[in-house]
Amino acid sequence: MKIVQTFWTCNVVDLADLKTFRSAWLTTNHHYMSWALSCLRLREYYDEVELVTDSLGKELLIDELKLPYTSVKVVLDDINGYPWQFWAIAKLISYSLQDKPFIHIDGDIFISKPFTESLEKAAIISQNLEVNFDCYHSAMKAIIKTQNYLPTEIKDYLSQTNHILASNMGIFGGNNIDFIKQFSKEALHFAQEYFTYASDKDFQFFNCVFEQFLLICMAQKAKIDIDYFTKDTEQFSDYKPISQFNKMGSNDLNYVHLVGSFKRQLSKCNTLSSVLKKEYPEYHRRVNQILGEKTKLQYFMAQFR
After folding, report:
1. Is residue 150 a contact partner of residue 143, using CB atoms and an 8 Å limit?
2. Is residue 152 within 8 Å of 254, Cβ to Cβ?
3. Residues in Cβ contact with 163 at an 8 Å cutoff, skipping those fewer than 6 apart
4. CA distances (Å), 176 to each of 80, 190, 229, in order?
5. Which residues contact 9 (CB under 8 A, 6 or more apart)?
6. 125 vs 262: CA distance, rounded Å
């Protein structure tokens, strides 16, 4: 199975600026330690791991950090006019470029065994089902307020229920490439239309809708089943069970996804650093050499920024 990851630098000006870009992480060091560990763990189990990025992304992750991706596509420079809140556009472009079965995996996910054969053979793959999360309802209110373009599949879905289901796409892919290309094309069109008419204050959570909610709507209309990495919707309602880095590699946990605010928790970030240093000391050293090694006090104070 081909693995794909996407790194978009979100309008960062130059390499020096990128080296201070921490995204949602506690520090810049942890941000790039995450990319290193995610890639390195994937390479333990998969022979084909592709990076889709822009010019600056290649310069940092490939040329400087020397992460062992087996192929690199530099195709994201043209989307630098979008604000950072539209980060899912970069992922959608990655999906659209694929011509054979694949799994796309976010850079904050770490595995300690390959995915099951049954999951890898599925038509459509996603991490888990999200049920009635508030962010979707908030985003839909903002979208409807613009009175602009809304995909037919979403209109049809909402005409039947206000109960919003969505797919968390920390992992996404599958074997139905035709559907994935159709979904990617519609999602990108939806994002472009909304960006044209909406104001900045309405951008929050829009990624959730044009990627994760639209997938559900289109799959239901096409009568295509989505196979989930985990089917336990209640257990994963707050994502705590898959954030337990300290259990990584045990029988309890072979998959970690540091969603949202978990990226800013000092304990999680310390474990991330420790795991990378223990398993791949050369890459841990390289991150700190390139970005400057931080003290424990600096890490501690970063929580309050």
Report:
1. yes
2. no
3. 131, 132
4. 29, 21, 17
5. 18, 21, 53, 54, 56, 57
6. 24
Question: Which pTM does this prediction carry?
Answer: 0.90
Q: Tokens standing for 139?
A: 């985003």
Q: What angle do CA 182, 8, 91 make, to 5 degrees?
A: 20
> What separation in angstroms does the CA of 47 have from each of 14, 71, 114, 223, 236?
31, 11, 11, 32, 30
The Cα 207–Cα 220 span in angstroms is 19
User: What are 67's two structure tokens?
Assistant: 């992460």
pLDDT in tens, 102-161: 999 999 999 999 999 999 999 999 998 988 777 777 777 877 777 678 899 999 988 898
The DSSP secondary structure of the chain, one letter per residue, reads -EEEEEE--TT--SHHHHTT--TTSSSHHHHHHHHHHHHHHHHHH-S-EEEEE-HHHIIIIIIIS----SEEEE--GGGTTS-GGGTHHHHHHHHHT--S-EEEE-TTEEESSPPPHHHHT-SSEEEEEEES-HHHHHHHHHHHHTT----HHHHHHHTT-S--EEEEEEEEEES-HHHHHHHHHHHHHHHHHHHHH--GGG-TTHHIIIIIIHHHHHHHHHT---EES---TTTTSS--GGG-GGGBTBTTBSEEE--GGGGG-HHHHHHHHHHHHHH-HHHHHHHHHHH-PPPHHHHHHHTT-
- Using an 8 Å Cβ cutoff, are 18 and 63 in contact? no
Fold of the domain spanning 2-294: Spore Coat Polysaccharide Biosynthesis Protein SpsA; Chain A (3.90.550)
pLDDT digits (tens, 9 = 90+) for 222-233: 999 999 998 766
